[in-house]
Design brief:
P-loop_NTPase, alpha/beta, Rossmann fold, 252 residues, 4-stranded antiparallel sheet, 2 domains, binds adenosine-5'-triphosphate, 35% helix
């Protein structure tokens, strides 16, 4: 499998704070990779460096063989807060990325409607964001990030603001969307269950300065369902990720 993104000996210093220390891992093309780790271990900073919004202090991130040195265009981003434009309809928000890219929105309307259907948003095409629940807004933001089939999607704790039950449903909705698009995804989460359920690979980071503590390949068959959560192999993967996080914590 070819590699889409390579993180090579990446370090980031903010003044006297070493946020990331010599992190290395790779993200295979068309795979779903999660980063888990305690608060402050540099997960968001790593995503910002991957998007070209922040410069590394040492090492590098390469996207399709090219070192990222400035903002990259061919990327979809999903943040904790869905940041939809309140005056636009939900469909209009999803199509906005096409317009921003100088493309004809009409050419993407069919795909936008398909993504909305997969995300359980059929019937809400003409609704404004304030008429949607938080989970629905975030599903719309994910559809928007996937619309143009970017070579990389970065997601920073996209379900962090949602309640536990909605969050679990969102995980399955994201899986459905991802299986349709097979975008390369780098996903940051605090949830071990979410990381193991969604990912091909889970990267476990230790507390600040963020170091890679473990890289766990999750070779559970897809599509994963709520039964997967009870599969002993799932439970063993989740335990290994938890051990990685806790082992890192005892170092401090
Ligand atoms: N612009 C900045 N200036 C100074 N320090 C920063 C800046 N951005 C991040 N940091 C510091 O770098 C460290 C890593 O921050 P980052 O937000 O990447 O962590 P995180 O793992 O995403 O945390 P959380 O899980 O709480 O979102 C923190 O100690 C933070 O205070």
């Amino acid at each position: 499998m070819s590699t889409s993104l390579i993180v090579e000996n990446l370090s980031k210093r903010f003044g006297s704070t070493l946020a990331i220390d010599q992190a290395s891992f790779s993200v295979p093309k068309n795979s779903f990779v999660s980063i888990v780790g305690p608060s402050g271990c540099g997960k968001s900073t790593l995503l910002r460096i991957a998007a070209g919004l922040v410069r590394a202090s040492g090492g590098r991130i390469k996207l399709r063989g090219q070192e990222v040195t400035g903002p990259i265009r061919d990327v979809g981003m999903v943040f904790q807060s869905p940041v939809l434009l309140p005056w636009r309809t939900t469909l209009g928000n999803i199509l906005f990325v096409a317009e921003m890219g100088g493309l004809r929105a009409a050419d993407y309307e069919g795909r936008a409607r398909e993504l909305m259907a997969l995300a359980g948003l059929s019937g809400f095409e003409e609704s404004r964001p304030f008429e949607l629940s938080g989970g629905m807004q975030q599903r719309a933001a994910i559809c928007r990030a996937m619309l143009l089939k970017p070579s990389l999607i970065l997601m920073d704790e996209p379900f962090g603001a949602l309640d536990v039950i909605t969050r679990e449903r969102m995980g399955f909705a994201l899986q459905t969307l991802w299986e349709e698009s097979r975008n390369t995804v780098l996903f940051v989460t605090h949830s071990i269950t979410e990381a193991v359920l969604l990912s091909d690979i889970v990267v476990v980071m230790s507390p600040r300065p963020g170091r890679i503590h473990d890289i766990v390949e999750i070779d559970l068959p897809r599509s994963r369902t709520s039964a997967t959560l009870r599969d002993p192999r799932f439970v063993a993967f989740a335990a290994r990720v938890r051990e990685g996080i806790e082992a890192g914590e005892t170092e401090y």
